Amino acid sequence: MKKIILLCVMALLMNVQSVSAHSKLESSAPTEGETITGDVPEITLTFNTSIEELSSFTVVKDDGSDVPVENAAVSGSTLTGTVPKDLENGSYKINFKIVGEDSHVVEGTTSFTVKREEPVQEEQPAPEVKKEEKKKNETAEAKSTETEKENKSYVVPALIAAAAAVIAYSIIRRKNK
C-alpha cells in the first residue's frame, strides 16, 4: 500500500514539472530595435505555440502616448495589426499580452524606431534601406523582454499530493496499531 501511494505521489510530481513550458515570442516585424525610415508595415508578432483569440498588443510612443491599433487578429501562432502609416519620428514599444495554448498569460515588449528624414525644400526621393541592413532586419529574431506571469499551476497539485500522502500515512499508521 505504501509503495502504491509513493508511486502516485511521484507520478503527480513528475507530471507537474512537465507543464512549465510557456509561449514565447519567436519573431516580430518590425524586428527588435529596427529603425524604419518609411511607412510602418503591418505589425506581426509570431510565437512558438498557438495563441488564443484573447491575445492583444498595444503600441506606445516614447512620450507615453498610445498609437491606435486596427485590424488586430490572431491566426494560429501569429498576432497581427496595423498602425497609422505616417507615424512620427521616435521610439515605439509594442507591449503584448497573449494567452498561450497552455492557458498561461505571457506579457512582453519589443521596440522599434521611426526615423524619417526631415523634408527639405526641394523634393528628393526617399532613401532606401541598405541591402545589408534590410537582410539583417529580415533574418534577426526579435529579442523581447518577456515577463511571464505564471499562475504557478504546479503548486496546487503538489499540495494535493502532499495532503494525500499525509492522509494515507495516517490511515496506514492507525491500521497498524
TrEMBL record:
<keyword id="KW-0479">Metal-binding</keyword>
<dbReference type="GO" id="GO:0030313">
    <property type="term" value="C:cell envelope"/>
</dbReference>
<keyword id="KW-0186">Copper</keyword>
<feature type="domain" description="CopC">
    <location>
        <begin position="22"/>
        <end position="114"/>
    </location>
</feature>
<dbReference type="InterPro" id="IPR014755">
    <property type="entry name" value="Cu-Rt/internalin_Ig-like"/>
</dbReference>
<protein>
    <recommendedName>
        <fullName>CopC domain-containing protein</fullName>
    </recommendedName>
</protein>
<dbReference type="InterPro" id="IPR014756">
    <property type="entry name" value="Ig_E-set"/>
</dbReference>
<keyword id="KW-0812">Transmembrane</keyword>
<dbReference type="GO" id="GO:0006825">
    <property type="term" value="P:copper ion transport"/>
</dbReference>
<feature type="signal peptide">
    <location>
        <begin position="1"/>
        <end position="21"/>
    </location>
</feature>
<dbReference type="Pfam" id="PF04234">
    <property type="entry name" value="CopC"/>
</dbReference>
<keyword id="KW-1133">Transmembrane helix</keyword>
<feature type="transmembrane region" description="Helical">
    <location>
        <begin position="154"/>
        <end position="172"/>
    </location>
</feature>
<feature type="region of interest" description="Disordered">
    <location>
        <begin position="110"/>
        <end position="151"/>
    </location>
</feature>
<dbReference type="GO" id="GO:0046688">
    <property type="term" value="P:response to copper ion"/>
</dbReference>
<dbReference type="InterPro" id="IPR007348">
    <property type="entry name" value="CopC_dom"/>
</dbReference>
<dbReference type="GO" id="GO:0042597">
    <property type="term" value="C:periplasmic space"/>
</dbReference>
<feature type="compositionally biased region" description="Basic and acidic residues">
    <location>
        <begin position="128"/>
        <end position="151"/>
    </location>
</feature>
<keyword id="KW-0472">Membrane</keyword>
<dbReference type="InterPro" id="IPR032694">
    <property type="entry name" value="CopC/D"/>
</dbReference>
<dbReference type="GO" id="GO:0005886">
    <property type="term" value="C:plasma membrane"/>
</dbReference>
<keyword id="KW-0732">Signal</keyword>
<dbReference type="GO" id="GO:0005507">
    <property type="term" value="F:copper ion binding"/>
</dbReference>
